[in-house]
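Quick one - inputs below.
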Amino acid sequence: MKKVIIIALLFYFNINAQTDRHKWQPVNKVYQLKQDNGRDYSLDKHSAGSFLLTGIRDIYWLTFSDLDGDNCPFHPTCSTFFVKSVKKTNIVQGALMFADRFTRDSNLFKGKDHYKRDETGKLYDPVNNYTLNEKQIIYIETGSKGKSVHEVK
Amino acid sequence: MKVNTIKYFTVFQIIFVLLNSNLIGQTTAAPTNYFSIRNRLKFGNDLFSQKDYLRAIDEYQAVLKKMRSDTLLFKIGYSYEQMKCFPKANSFYQKLLNSKSLSEIAKFEILKTNFLEGNYGKVKTLHISQDSSDNAYYPNEAKLFYSTYMLDQNELPDSSNYKLWFNEATQSEVMKFYRRKINPGYKSETLAAVLSTVVPGLGKIYVGETGDGITAFLFNSILGFLAYDNFRAHHKLRAWIFTGLTALFYGGNIYGSISAAQIYNAGIRFNFDKDFKVFLNNHNYFSPKYYFMNK
Amino acid sequence: MLNSIKYMFIAIVLSSPLRVFAQEQIDIQYKYADSLFENQQLFDAITEFKRLLFFDKEERYLFDANSKIGLSYKGGAKYNNAIFYFKKAEKYSHSEKQKYQTAVQIIRVNILRGTTERALQLLNSLERKYKSPTEIREINYWRGWAFMFADRWEEADSSFARINPNHPLKKICEEVIDNKYSVTFAKLISYILPGVGQFYTGHFVSGLMSLSWNIFWGYLTVNAFMNDRVFDGMAIGNLLWFRFYRGNYQNAEKFAVQKNISIANKALRKVQLEYKGVKP
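Output:
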């Protein structure tokens, strides 16, 4: 209870706190509604491997994934997760990470309530948490709403 | 008698007013009276109390150009600290190390800004280099010093140290944290890996991800069965594809159990750190009360 | 006794230049702060207005300085702070007109901030209080803006129409309404024949591919049932045909929504760049 009050108080002070933490400049507000940027189909030309990988991903997206509806509850989606994990680690570890992600994605038995939902309602499940490098784990508090993501160092 | 006093008072007032207006007559050329040192200081203090720290700093800096004031240096440091600009705050506290009245408190604040920034190693070296006799805030510093061990991965000092430095009110809470730090209830990554190697998914169940564990078990057994079934039926190609998939998901299951254990442990550390920081915040990081700032 | 009163009177008369001078100084400070504001040095302008408020013992500038601080924060897109200071200004307003003006400012900030629901709420309560023709016109004007920012163009259109049937903003609203795609229609026709909704929004390749997948999986499903392979039929039908059928109408809906946002954004860009009237 005490903790709740403190968090509520912190939140309250946050609202009323002066935001002038730096000398800001005038801002020209652009009158635009928020638009979903959609997928990034760009090919990665840094190496032959990643070029091939992003190419295969694009073909999968264009012919299959874009047409069979919104099925993946995660953010990033499984295909993006795979590409990112391979880029971050290597093809073998990336494949293992993908197999694990695919298993978790197919989990029908228990609610996925230990993931945090992002703004669009997707379950936030970053690649960083699965590289077996403890320092990179971004631990996400569930049960609390909002965008804050806490990093454990 | 009474009338007389009023009379004298009024005469005095007239003289005063005349003198004053004379003075003003001279200063009309420079109308920026609000920018005198005194007024800037007053205005700066007002901004400071409104927590408009950046603007307060500007006023104080202008005052400091004309005169030296340790209190103002401290308040600038304090403002930066409130804005979470810890290195800047630190640099202002450093300037006070030779101050007569504020050097001890500056030393404590240097320690505290390092603590808030997460430089726990620096806090330790700073504290160890100090002598208990030459600092009135040694007990406050000691509390922060021992708190660093709660938040980093170094070996915890003996509990008697905590009993010594934390007073009655905070002692029981600190001891609770101490026990939690010693027995955090981590899940073993190795055990998770071994369990998942023996029975696919068991490691995940051990970590608490029951649903994921059952799914991993089903995936492995179905794929394994399909591989076996196709070998038996002499569908070589299909059999090898399923064998490959089984291997992938079997490996993925072991891998996933390890990472699930890691995430579980990260969660424990996260919650511990969060609770401990709430505790520190409740006690204002054991700072002394700075009455001189309100002058 | 009488004498002393005389002396006092003289004292007061003599001290009046002092007061006049203090007033002048306050005025100079206000002009200084205001010049910073005019030069778009908003952060410094706020500092100087705050300094003015601090030394303004007679509280003559309580309204002006607070509303100028609000305007400065608005210019820096710090909308929460802006509203905080406008509310302060509202509290210290000297006349009903000033009160009305700050209330309108708060509404404009809400429109810019994107909290259009709040803006509309405030407009409704303002309408109950202020009934003069110019005020009603202005309230409808900002209501139109709030509806535009809320992507509710029909209501924006009718709000502007209440001011003037030939209002330039009404024209833009009409354009948007004409150009927008019907999301329900797109979805509905894709229910009936996969891919058609995508054609409607101009996504021909996607529509064609959706149609092909649906024909392909549909054929396999039907074929399986025809050959009495019930399990295969159910598996393909459920896992693949249905998946692509659902993906098809989801896409039709998604494309229509995306197109509509693009149309709205195009109109908003036009309003921002070409419209000459007062903007929030």
